[in-house]
Structure formats: C-alpha cells, structure tokens
C-alpha cells in the first residue's frame, strides 16, 4: 500500500464512492486525503502521519484503525476513545520533506462521521502556509454531533475562518492559501467520555472563481486631513497568481458612517471592472474627496461599501476617516495636564473603559476590535511575534493596529507593550543582555543604564513604545523561578541598578519619552514578589512563584518597598502589581492578592510615594482574585489598577467594568483618574503626534555598537569565586579542553524570556556562544560536549555547565527543577578536573550547589545568563579584561540553608554576598595596618560626599580581605564580609571597612 493517502487513484475512489456522494456532472473527481486503510501511519513531523495531542497526559485520545463491516469506504475506519478535561484531539500532517498540497481546484473537504448524538460541537481545522504542518496558519470551523450513525459531513472552504485565539506561528498572511495545505486537525468534545469513528476524508466539488479570486483593499482605514482626498486602492488577487477566468466587478458607494454626505465629503459611487484575463494583483483606485467646513470636530467616518461579483469580497468595509482637528487636546503646545483634561471631558464611558483595556495581539486578529472596543493598549506576550520575526514585520504589525485606532472618534493611539526584560528579547537578531541577576553582579550603575538605553532604542525602532521592565524584585530565596529577573537579594543593590530606568526612559521628568530611542518603563512586580515563602504558591504546580510574602511592616518597608521609592523618584512611568499575596503581620487581613491591595496601590504607591504614572495589571492576574468576574473587575479597579491586561477576555472586561460603573460599584471619579493617568503617558510619549513606528533606528538593532554594550555587561557580570594556582586568566598559548552542556548553546546562555516565554536550548537567535567567544579570542581550544574525547595533552580544561531555560513558576525548585548540576554536567566536571587543571563556569539564573566538587575544581566562575555575547565571557577568561563581578546573591552550601540572605543572624554560606575575586590586579598588602588607613580615608570620603573615592577605598579593603580568606570561607568571616557590601551600597564607607576588618580578624 503506498504511504501517502493522496496516491490512491481517483478512479478507484470514484468506483468506491457511495451513491450519496455522487458529484455534479462538471465537478472534478474527488481527491482522496485519507482512506484509513493503513496507508498513513501514526507518526509526526517531519514524517507524514496522524498524531494525538492534549492539554495534559490524560487528554490525548486513543486512536486505532478498526475493521468495520459498515465502513463507508474500504474495510477500515479511524476509531478512537476519549475523556478530555482540558483539550485534546488529533492531527494529520503531511510530510514536511515534500511540497505542500494544492487543494485549490475543489469546493471543500468532506468525510464520514459515526454520530453519537451527544449534541457536542467538534472543531475541524485545516492548515495552510508556513514551512510545514506545525508552522502554518490554522483555519477553523465546526460541526455538531446531533445524529446517530454514519453521516457525510461536507464543509465548503468558504466556511473556514482564521483562528484568532491561537496560532502556532503568530500568523503568516491571514489569507487561506488552498494551494499550500499541510493537513487537518479535529478537536474532540470536552467533558464527555466517548468514542468516535471517521472515514474517507476527501476533497470534493469544483471551486468557483470566488474561492480562487479575492478582492482586497490596501488598508481597512484611510485617515485623511479635512479637505484632502483619500485614495482607496482596490486589488484583485488569485490563488497561484493565475489570470482571471471570468470578469470581476466591484460596485462601490459611500454610505453611512458619522460624516455627512455633501457637508463633510463629496459622495461617490460607481463600478470597477476587472475583465477576464486580468493579471493577479491588478489595482484600481477609488477617490473620496473630503470637504473643509472650517470647524473644530472629532474624527468622522465615511464607509465605502463594496459589492463584489465574481470574487470573494473584502472581509470588512473600508473606511475613510476625516481626522479630528482643531480641538485643544490635539495642540502639542499645550501642557499635558490641559490636553488630558480636554480629551477626558469629551469621552464617553465606553471610550474611557476602552482606554483601561489591554488585549493580546493574537486575540484581535487583523485588529478590527481595536476600534470596535476603543482599546487603549495591545501587548505581545512572551513569544507572541509577527511572521517573519523581523524588525520590519514588527513595525508593520504595530502600525496596522495603530491605523485601526485612527478609526475611533478621538483617534487616541494605542500604547503597545512587550516584556523586553534583557534586550528586545522577543525579536530574533536583537541584542540580548545578561539577565538582571548578571547586571546586579556587575555592581556598575553605568552599565545598567547603558543596557537599558540599548534595549529602549531597539524596542522603539520596531514601533513599541512601552517595556514591561525593569523587575525591581528583591529575590530572597533562590528556589524561586524568577530569581534571575532580580538584580539581587539586597534592596540597596536593586536601588543602585535602577539607573536602568534612565536608560529606558531618559530624564526623570519624562521630557525624553517622545524620542525615537526611549520607551515607557515599568517597575514590577509591586510589591514583595521576591519574598514569597516556599510552598505557599497556589498556582498549578508552582512551589513559590505567585505565593505569599509574609513580613512585618518594617521588613516590607526596608526590603520590598524601598526600590519603588527610588523608581518613583526616577520618574518611572508605569507599575505592575505582583501575582503574589502580601501578608503583613498585625494588619489583621491575612494574605491578600496584590491586585486587591488598595492600601498598597492607592495608599502607598500613589498616595504616600506620589506615583503619577499608571498601574497595569499582570497577565490575567485579576482572575486570581476571590469571587466572580464582576468582583474581580471591581476589586482590582477600586484598588488602583488603572489598565487591565486581559489578553483574551477584553470583551467581557469592557462589558463588566461598564456594568460596575453603571451600578455604582466603581465611581466615575475612579475611572477618570485611571484614564487621565493613561492619557498623560500617551501624550508624553508623543503618540498623538507620531502614532506610527519611527524605524530610523532599526539599522542599529543587533549592531556592533549595541553588541559592544552587551559584551561589556557580560564581561563585568562574571564572578570569579575561586582561582587556585591562578588558572585564570587563560593564555592563548595553552591547549584548552572545553566541555559541558552550556559551552556551545546560545539558548541556554540567554535563558528564559528569549524569543519565547520559557526560552529554549539551541540556536534561536543571533549571537556568540562562550565556546565561539574563546575561539574568537585566539584560544587554542578543543571541544567535547560530554568530555568523551581523550583528555591527554591539554594544559587546562574549561567546563561550562548549569541550567537549561525556564521562566516564572515553571522554574521553581520542586516543580521539576533543583539546584544541583545534572548527572551529565557532574560527569563532565569530574572527568576533566581529574585529568588536568580546570576552570568551571556555571551558566545559570541562580546559584548551583557545587560544594561537593569544590575540592577538585581549581577555578570557579558564576557566569549567570550572559546573553548573546559570549565574547564578553571570553574577554575575562583570556585576560583582555579583569574579573570584577561580585555575588548579587548569597551562594548557599545546601538547599536546606534556603532562604539565606545578607543580614541574616545565622549566615554560613559557600560564598557570601559580595564575594568576587579579581584578576590582572594584585590585592593590596599590609594587612591590618592597611585596613586601618583605608578606614580613615573612607571616613573622610564619606564626610566630603566623595562617593567614587569611598567605593574605591572599600573595594581595596575587600580585595585585601578576600586574599586573606582564600577558600577558608567560614561563618565568622562571611557575615561581616556580606554586611560590608550592604553598607558600601548605602554609602557608609567607613562602616563597610570596619566590617571588613572584622572579617579579616576572623579569617
């Protein structure tokens, strides 16, 4: 039997067809897709085959080819059983190694279904475009199982619509390309235990020209200044670009809308004709002239109704929009406050609610709902990207959404947001910085600002004006899967790295936000997300993320709130509450979700701290609040959340919030406050004057200059924990044996939140691995990932080990993760370090437990997640730059010690907070006498306000003390050593040196 179903002869199939499937005389013979006689195996990409899928391990159905005497065709049918709680179904994908199939000659697809009369809808999808069945577009329809026994289900291709809730590649061209088909899929009913049988999938009927030809316009919205003329380009296109077989006519008429015919525009009507033989892509133009009535007014619409004969009509009626003009809020010379007040006074409740609503780009399809719901914002979740994932495609996509907003009454632009948490990390080819944990290790506020500036420039160049960064969490337990999003465990360190806000936004007064290389920043996650207790999470299988932070009020102020005071002073534009709950000792409230804590959002953030930006919720976070959905909405808005991230439920949200206001449960004053805050930032960003992408900076995305910043950050983030026998820096003359899972893996090196939400191993963007960086540095290196190659004849080994990517609670320890090296990594370390002097680099988002192997390791480096620039790691390995990084978190001896942090009463780590050896610089000599002298000088620097001198003096003392301690890191030296680094960051230089003297004496 041939392997592919499409090789079954049409003549044989015609002979086997039941009488009920007889075709019209001029129809082509049906083309078989699946006979289920065993000609297609159960397999998956890249091979052709049928495979199952589901939301969890119980959801995929069980399939088999079953003998049935009553089979509509042949002897066998596809049969299966299912009991689905989430979602599940099966797919037939065609082989990715062969060309896509051409279904364009047929009217539709049909198959036989053995009905169970359960009244359930069954979704049926087809796949077109893209590289293969798993990187294609999904088009969907459904049929209802409301019958018993075999019935032939016929589905014309005209019934299929583009899926807006999920696309595996984020959409390709949103055009059903019947000449590029990759297969089909069925989603089975949820909540019923059942069985099914299916047979004889085939293409039927003759496609009329309306299936092969379509009329489109070059846009859905045509903004035009009053008195000017709009040009609407009408085009005809055919499948396969074949000329038209028959004429296509397009009758057009300006009718309806909010503009008045004869007063606001000159009415138009007529017919465009595309004769038979017209080439695909031919275009004709309809012009709509607007009239100048010289009065200030809001935008007005002129729909151009199109009636198409001989082809598929456009999906929607194009609209000419006469731009709003002459109104005070449009005057860029007026103060922002006056512009906001004027615009707010004109808006309806529905328009205000729309501004408070943020949807995911994938939920709004081609963007029609942007105007229909007056949406204020769209976002891309992690991995939600245009296809292709290029800077130009991002700009086109966002400009398309912004164009939709121009069809609203006041033409309020969208504010589009992304999680660019370490560079423009959703964009392939962007410059990816070290994650925040590495930035904290640099102890360099200037490099933090520079990385923010590069990120802002690359983000804004793609049309995105808003970044959900930086994370100001103070990580207190490295079992947390978001540890790497934090600058460190000490609020003083986090505060010092908030220079990143200026890199992103510019000056604190917001005057730079309109620039083409700045974005609105977001301080997140307010407040206490880094302090959640292990085991307190109630989210799925998470163990600590989104859990409960239990603190005294003083601990809350000193540890978790402190970075937000700094952020507000720095002019942060938006703040995002945490998923987690806050339990303040003595307040009598118990654990309360942050999105419901009006005392903290309204009271502390907006009230006491004076935050004048707006508060954006986290992804569907209000769904975690107590009560029903109306309670979720009312509680969060009343608590002070100004804009709600409701990615796929924006329609429900807008209705419910409107109902809440009308019922008096949310006041108009609260709505006006929220909308005023949102509008103010849109004005500051210059979006009213320039809503579309300024791509003039796109050529700098991933440029040498930007990568140089990332390379510098990567170099400064490397923390040298141990360096016996001065193994590092390496010499170019040495023969170096390189091994380990993370030596040559860009995905592991960049971590989570890179291209996709969770990140992935392998090469998924442009960059340099650590191995390649070592080669670029001129190193004489040999690579064996698993250390299986012979180890003889080498001067030194470098073993690069650590974690694979994860994000958020998926990375929580206990949720399939721990802090130990994998067996393969352990084996590589053991083999290489037993054979030669060795340096071990740990590429990870948090400390790894390495104490049992410290004796066999000569040099140990905490490399964190250095981003795309492995050259920066090589710079310090080969001595082009000195190791200068310091631990931003305490490195524990065992998991049992966690949580362990600077300032703890009991403190006995593997390496203390602030630890970091250096190279290329000798430690100061002189012992106690030198420390006394440094202390006197530090006191003078503190008295005169000389911060740079004070830091330099403390750093000298630290190097002297580290040299004394060596690897004899005891509890007696660790506590004062860590305390000294905290004191340094708070500007208490003399006290810091005194603590280092204490550590020196205990060594």
Please provide a written account of the structure.
The N terminus is likely disordered. By secondary structure, this protein is α/β, with parallel strands linked by helices. The chain is globular. The protein has 24 helices and 37 strands. The longest helix is centred in the C-terminal third of the chain and has 19 residues. A hairpin with an 8-residue loop joins strand 7 and strand 8. Helix 4 packs across helix 15 and helix 7 packs across helix 16. Strands 1, 3, 4, 6, 9 and 12 form a six-stranded antiparallel β-sheet that branches. Helices cover 27% and strands 21% of the residues.
Give the topology.
Blueprint: H1 10-16, E1 31-34, E2 49-54, E3 62-67, E4 76-83, E5 88-93, E6 108-116, E7 120-128, E8 137-145, E9 148-156, E10 161-162, E11 181-187, E12 193-204, H2 209-212, E13 213-217, E14 221-224, E15 229-238, E16 248-254, E17 269-274, E18 283-289, E19 300-309, E20 319-322, H3 336-346, H4 349-355, E21 357-360, H5 368-372, E22 377-380, H6 391-405, E23 415-418, H7 436-442, H8 445-460, E24 466-467, H9 491-496, H10 499-505, E25 522-526, E26 548-551, H11 553-569, E27 574-577, E28 581-584, E29 592-593, H12 598-608, E30 614-615, H13 629-639, E31 644-645, H14 650-662, H15 668-684, H16 704-717, E32 719-723, E33 735-739, H17 746-750, H18 770-776, E34 780-783, E35 796-802, H19 823-835, E36 838-843, E37 859-862, H20 870-877, H21 927-944, H22 947-965, H23 971-985, H24 989-1002
Parallel strand pairs: 14-20, 21-22, 21-31, 22-23, 23-24, 25-27, 26-28, 27-30, 33-34, 33-35, 35-36, 36-37
Antiparallel strand pairs: 1-12, 2-5, 3-4, 4-12, 5-11, 6-9, 6-12, 7-8, 7-11, 8-10, 13-15, 15-18, 16-17, 16-19, 19-20, 28-29, 32-37
């Amino acid at each position: 039997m041939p392997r592919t179903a499409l090789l079954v002869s049409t003549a044989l199939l015609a002979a086997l067809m039941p009488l009920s499937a007889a075709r019209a005389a001029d129809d082509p013979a049906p083309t078989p897709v699946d006979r289920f006689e065993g000609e297609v195996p159960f397999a998956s990409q890249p091979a052709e085959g049928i495979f199952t899928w589901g939301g969890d391990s119980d959801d995929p159905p069980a399939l088999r080819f079953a003998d049935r005497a009553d089979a509509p065709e042949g002897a066998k049918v596809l049969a299966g059983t299912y009991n689905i709680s989430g979602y599940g179904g099966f797919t037939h994908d065609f082989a990715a190694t062969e060309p896509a199939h051409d279904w364009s000659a047929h009217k539709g697809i049909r198959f036989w279904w053995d009905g169970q009369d359960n009244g359930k809808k069954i979704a049926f999808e087809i796949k077109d475009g893209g590289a293969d069945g798993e990187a294609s577009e999904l088009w969907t329809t459904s049929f209802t199982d409301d019958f018993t026994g075999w019935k032939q289900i016929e589905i014309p291709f005209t019934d299929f619509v583009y899926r807006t809730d999920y696309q595996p590649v984020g959409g390709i061209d949103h055009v059903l390309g019947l000449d590029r088909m990759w297969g089909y899929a069925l989603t089975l009913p949820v909540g019923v235990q059942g069985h099914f049988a299916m047979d004889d999938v085939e293409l039927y009927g003759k496609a009329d020209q309306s299936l092969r030809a379509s009329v489109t316009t070059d846009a859905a919205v045509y903004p035009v200044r009053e008195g000017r003329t709009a040009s609407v380009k009408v085009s005809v296109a055919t499948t396969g670009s074949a000329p038209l077989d028959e004429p296509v006519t397009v009758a057009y008429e300006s009718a309806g809308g909010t503009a008045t015919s004869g007063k606001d525009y000159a009415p138009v009507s007529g017919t465009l004709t595309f004769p038979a033989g017209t080439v695909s892509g031919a275009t004709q133009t309809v012009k709509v002239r607007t009239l100048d009535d010289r009065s200030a007014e809001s935008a007005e619409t002129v729909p151009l109704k199109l009636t198409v004969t001989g082809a598929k009509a456009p999906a929607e009626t194009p609209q000419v929009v006469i731009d709003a003009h002459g109104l005070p809020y449009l005057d860029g010379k007026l103060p922002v406050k006056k512009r906001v007040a004027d615009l707010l006074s004109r808006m309806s409740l529905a328009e205000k609610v729309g501004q408070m609503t943020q949807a995911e780009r994938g939920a709004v399809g081609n963007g029609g709902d942007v105007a229909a719901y007056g949406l204020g914002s769209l976002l891309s979740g992690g991995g939600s990207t245009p296809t292709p994932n290029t800077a130009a495609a991002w700009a086109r996509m966002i400009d398309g959404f912004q164009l939709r907003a121009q069809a609203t009454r006041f033409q309020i632009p969208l504010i589009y947001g992304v999680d660019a948490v370490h560079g423009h990390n959703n964009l392939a080819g962007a410059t990816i910085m070290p994650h925040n944990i590495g930035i904290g290790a640099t102890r360099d506020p200037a490099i933090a600002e520079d990385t923010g500036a590069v990120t802002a420039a690359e983000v804004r160049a793609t049309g995105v004006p808003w970044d959900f960064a930086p994370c100001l969490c103070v990580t207190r337990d490295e079992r947390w899967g978001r540890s790497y999003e934090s600058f460190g465990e000490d609020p003083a360190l986090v505060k010092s790295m908030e220079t990143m806000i200026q890199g992103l936004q510019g000056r604190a007064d917001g005057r730079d936000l309109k620039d083409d290389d700045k974005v609105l920043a977001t301080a997140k996650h307010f407040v206490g997300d880094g302090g959640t207790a292990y085991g307190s999470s109630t989210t799925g299988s998470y163990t600590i993320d989104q859990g409960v932070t239990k603190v005294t009020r003083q601990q809350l102020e000193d540890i978790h709130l402190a970075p937000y005071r700094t952020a507000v002073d720095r002019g942060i534009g938006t703040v995002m509450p945490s998923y987690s709950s806050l339990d303040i000792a003595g307040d009598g409230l118990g654990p309360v979700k942050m999105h419901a804590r009006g005392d903290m959002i309204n009271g502390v953030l907006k009230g006491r701290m004076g935050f004048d930006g707006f508060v954006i919720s986290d992804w569907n976070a209000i769904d975690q609040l107590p009560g029903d959905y109306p309670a979720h909405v009312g509680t969060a808005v009343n608590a002070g959340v100004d804009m709600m991230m409701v990615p796929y439920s924006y329609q429900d949200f807008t209705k419910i919030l409107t109902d809440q206001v009308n019922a008096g449960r949310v006041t108009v004053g609260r709505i006006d406050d929220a909308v005023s805050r949102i509008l103010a930032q849109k004005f500051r960003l210059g979006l009213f004057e320039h809503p579309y992408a300024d791509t003039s900076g796109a050529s700098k995305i991933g440029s040498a200059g930007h990568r140089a910043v990332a390379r510098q950050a990567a170099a400064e983030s490397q923390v040298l924990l141990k360096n016996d026998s001065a193994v590092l820096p390496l010499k170019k003359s040495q023969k170096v044996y390189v091994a380990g899972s993370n030596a040559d893996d860009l995905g592991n090196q960049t971590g989570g939140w890179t291209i996709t939400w969770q990140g992935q191993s392998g090469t998924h963007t442009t960059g340099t691995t650590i191995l390649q960086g070592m080669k670029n540095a001129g190193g004489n290196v040999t690579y064996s990932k698993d250390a299986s190659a012979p180890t003889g004849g080498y001067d030194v080994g470098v073993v690069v080990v650590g974690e694979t990517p994860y994000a958020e609670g998926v990375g929580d320890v206990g949720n399939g993760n721990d802090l130990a090296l994998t067996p393969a990594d352990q084996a590589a370390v053991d083999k290489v370090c037993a054979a030669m002097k060795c340096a071990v680099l740990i590429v990870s988002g948090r400390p790894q437990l390495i104490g049992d192997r410290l004796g066999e390791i000569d040099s140990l480096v905490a490399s964190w997640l250095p981003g795309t620039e492995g050259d920066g790691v090589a710079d310090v390995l080969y001595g082009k730059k000195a190791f200068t990084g310091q631990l931003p978190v305490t490195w524990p001896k065992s998991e049992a010690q966690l949580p362990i942090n600077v300032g703890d009463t009991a403190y006995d780590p593997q390496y203390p907070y602030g630890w970091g050896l250096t190279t290329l610089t000798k430690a100061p000599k002189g012992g106690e006498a030198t420390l006394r002298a440094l202390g006197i000088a530090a006191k003078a620097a503190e008295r005169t306000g000389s911060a740079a001198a004070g830091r330099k003096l403390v750093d000298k003392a630290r190097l002297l003390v580290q040299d004394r301690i060596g690897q004899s890191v005891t509890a007696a030296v660790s506590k004062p050593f860590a305390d000294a680094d905290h004191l340094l960051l708070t500007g208490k230089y003399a006290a810091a040196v005194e603590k280092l003297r204490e550590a020196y004496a205990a060594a």
